[in-house]
Amino acid sequence: MKEKLKDITARALLAIDKADNNKDLAAVKVEILGKSGELTGILRNMKDLSPEDRPLAGKLVNEARVEIERAFDAKFKYLHDLELAKKLEEEKIDITIEGSDKKLGGLHPLTQMQNDVIDFFTSLGFAVLDSPEIETDYYNFEALNVPANHPARDMQDTFYVTDSILLRTQTSAGQIRYMENKKPPLKMINIGRVFRSDDVDATHSPVFHQIEGLVVDKHITMCDLKGILAKFAQRFFGEKTQIRFRPSYFPFTEPSVEVDASCPYCGGKGCRVCKGTGWIEILGAGIVNRNVLATCDINPDEFTGFAFGIGLDRITTICHGINDMRLEFENDIRFLKQFN
Ligand code: PHE
């Protein structure tokens, strides 16, 4: 048996030595040490030996197994390391190689301005409404005190979808939607796209953006309106900015005003931007018409409010000194890049 063990061990070591991949090596292991392997076979035959011989035989078999296993483990580690080294070599990446120059995108100037405006008003406690761009005649006109055939409808050239459905001409439609669901005290802004059948030129576009503001509470007056709008103008056009009110007309506010800001370019002296007047018109506003409050089930004897509508595109052109509003809609990358 000693001879046989020596022979098995010698052959096993040779086979282990010859195996040059882990698959072959595993096969060798099964052949010698597996369930029906040669060494296991010898162990099984031990029952034929006399009880006195068995301890010695067991010891020999064990020694042979330990020797083979050790050789096997060593080879396994060797092959494994070799494979890893090969893999690392193949997958090597050069981290010093220069990368391609990826440019980061940026927010559109109108989006940036919109975010700033939202920041400004939410810091004063205003809620932000998002109302539909496709509106019914009721919300865009009728509930805003503009009944059918009212001459004020001609103030805005409307895109109609059907007789009673249209593309909103003003974010004022959101006032009604808001007051239908929420009762005073309330403060909200509504920012979004509005549509009018206007020809495109440097100051007009059939699609533009408005910031609607609405505050309704007890004892709201024109002074509250002026205070907030003055703060707004100073925040966006500079600390020294002044505002002035001019009488105007909107069906949903009474009295109504047009609001000018002192020209941030010349400080009011008169320049090309303000066409020599020292003032730039920035918005329309007024005290919410009693009829509008009543339509929304808010008692006009108990509550008053103010509303305003600011042109987002207009204040963006003023803030950045953009001389043509079309630039804000054409998405010319050379223009947009300047705002990153
Ligand atoms: N909706 C008006 C417009 O588009 C602006 C406005 C809003 C005026 C709110 C008064 C109050 O011209």
Can you describe this structure?
Helices cover 41% and strands 19% of the residues. It contains twelve helices and nine strands. The model has no long low-confidence stretch (mean pLDDT 92). The termini are far apart. Strand 6 and strand 7 form a beta hairpin. It is α+β, with helices and mostly antiparallel strands. The strands form two sheets. The protein has a seven-stranded mixed sheet with strand order 1-4-5-9-8-7-6, sandwiched between helices. Strands 2-3 form a two-stranded antiparallel ribbon. The structure holds phenylalanine.
Characteristics:
single chain; alpha+beta; 2 domains; 9 strands; BirA Bifunctional Protein, domain 2; binds phenylalanine; about 350 residues; elongated; two-stranded antiparallel sheet
Secondary-structure map with pairings?
Elements: H1 2-18, H2 22-33, H3 38-45, H4 54-90, H5 109-123, E1 127-129, E2 134-136, H6 137-140, E3 165-167, H7 173-181, E4 186-195, E5 207-217, H8 222-237, E6 243-250, E7 253-262, E8 279-288, H9 290-295, E9 304-311, H10 312-320, H11 327-330, H12 333-336
Parallel strand pairs: 1-4
Antiparallel strand pairs: 2-3, 4-5, 5-9, 6-7, 7-8, 8-9
Bound molecules: phenylalanine.
